[in-house]
Specification:
The protein has 15 helices and 15 strands. The chain has 461 residues and is of the alpha/beta class. The chain has a single domain, classed as TIM Barrel, CATH 3.20.20. The protein binds D-gluconic acid.
Length: 461
């Protein structure tokens, strides 16, 4: 399939996405408080190679250079997140005005060069002080979060028009409160369900607060979504396993937001979340977002497995079944984003879908100052092509953001998987635009036709 940017229409939003803890560094600078990630990275054996985000891409000091680079690359929209503990060192109470200043400078500079800021309010870095009070497992977080959201709107809402309340609640509650592999490292079903319910309340409440304070903004929130298929297509048990995994990882957070309640029919165990619900909560979980951020990377193949606690299902790793997978062990499967978009389109209450993340980590070939990342170029072209396919079939998708601008701190995987379209030398903080960055830039300038034939480097020089 051949296509150009024009095929998506003038109104389609193109951008790149980032997150505060993954790029900012300056972890204790200018009054910033500790977040759960600042403390989690200090624990033994939690992060690959004992990496940490204390410095990361030092975006805190390099933001102007990085925004100038975005400008040079013709990337018109920039998604970043606010670090809660930079604004409220203790999560609540007194404001750190140096933190507010930093984001003001960043937002102002974006606008000065004509780049639209897209702001995620919470991308996983809960203030450690609030964690000590129970964090996401404590219902009081609805008030703590409300104060934080209102403060973001008050200080930045005059210029920021695109908001995302949460980033991937399934991942931060699942990895952080059930599996214990992300901050704050808690485990167990009770912690998970409590955190999940409070996050779902906060996602709607955050939307309500933003809308009540400004009428001229576009409010969304983001979800991870993986297309799921059974290991054996005709096996009943595998098909039941698919339903459960789908209810948990794809539907658990979005359906209550859309007013459909939790998808407990397809995974009965989730009914235990009712322990954490107060009367009237079901209504409070719903909010009509202006857009939904969809984040897709791969598909999952699921098999019934009686030994897996609670869910009795297992995800089969990509490396065990295909040859084309990324450094995250995620299958490269472009139709997954098409399936994801089609699925979201079936929800009546979604007004607009923006793909707020899609991208891949591969081993890049470095020769001199050229970073050859053909696999990423191919990945982006193929996934973007699938987005166009869905759009042409009438799906209300109206934006696409690459994950991510800069190689950065990839949570438990440390700095090993590089997702950037710009290479970062973490010793010198030098940035080198990869071939994928050059390709994206040309594509956005409308000078390039995308197709899988255009893999040869000379097209991007
Ligand atoms: C995510 C996060 C990103 C990750 C990316 C690759 O939403 O999971 O937004 O922080 O880095 O998804 O794993």
């Amino acid at each position: 399939m051949l296509f150009t940017r024009k095929d998506f229409g003038d109104d389609f939003k193109w951008g790149v996405s980032t997150a505060a803890y993954q790029i900012e560094g300056a972890h204790a600078k200018d009054g910033k408080g500790s977040s759960i990630w600042d403390t989690f990275v200090q624990k033994r054996k939690k992060i690959l190679n004992q990496d940490h985000g204390n410095i990361a891409c030092d975006f805190y000091h390099h933001y102007a250079e990085d925004i100038a680079l975005l400008y040079k690359l013709n990337i018109p929209n920039f998604r970043f997140s606010l670090a809660w503990s930079r604004i409220f060192p203790m999560g609540i109470g007194s404001i750190n005005y140096k933190g507010i200043d930093f984001y003001n400078r960043l937002i102002d500079f974006c606008l000065e060069v004509g780049i639209d800021p897209w702001v995620t309010i919470y991308h996983w870095d809960l203030p450690d002080y609030l964690h000590k009070k129970g964090g996401w497992t404590n219902r009081e977080i609805v008030d703590w979060f409300g104060e934080y959201v209102a403060t973001c709107s008050k200080y930045f809402g005059d210029r920021v028009k695109n908001w995302m309340v949460l980033n991937e609640p399934m991942v931060f509650t699942g990895a952080g409160y059930f599996l214990g592999v992300h901050a704050p490292g808690k485990k167990g079903l009770s912690n998970f369900l409590a955190a999940a319910h409070h996050a779902t309340l906060c996602q709607a409440e955050g939307g309500r607060i933003l809308r009540s304070l400004r009428t001229d903004s576009s409010i969304g929130t983001t979800f991870s979504y993986s297309h799921i298929e059974p290991a054996r297509k005709t096996d009943d048990k595998d098909n039941r396993a698919v339903k459960k995994v789908d209810a948990l990882i794809n539907r658990f957070f979005i359906e209550p937001l859309l007013g459909m309640g939790y998808p407990t029919n397809d995974f009965r165990l989730l009914q235990r979340i009712e322990r954490f619900m107060y009367p009237q909560d079901e209504k409070k979980l719903a909010f009509d977002m202006d857009f939904i951020g969809l984040q897709n990377y791969t598909r999952e193949i699921v098999q019934h497995n009686p030994f897996m606690p609670f869910i009795k299902a297992k995800i089969i790793k990509a490396s065990k079944r295909v040859t084309n997978y990324t450094l995250m062990d995620w299958e490269v499967y472009p139709p997954s984003i098409y399936e994801a978009l089609k699925q979201y389109d079936r929800y009546e209450n979604i007004k607009e879908i923006i793909v707020t993340e899609n991208g891949a980590a591969f081993t890049d070939q470095i020769t001199g100052t050229t970073i050859n990342d053909d696999k990423r170029v191919r990945f982006l072209q193929d996934y973007i092509g699938q987005v166009l396919l869905a759009k042409n079939e009438g799906v209300k998708v109206n934006g696409y953001f690459v994950w991510t601008l800069l190689d950065n701190f990839e949570w438990a995987e440390g700095f090993h998987p590089r997702f950037g379209i710009v290479y970062v030398d973490f010793n010198t903080q030098e940035r080198i635009v990869k071939n994928s960055g050059k390709w994206y830039s040309h594509f956005l300038q409308n000078t390039l036709t995308a197709s899988s034939e255009l893999q040869n480097n000379e097209h991007f020089e």
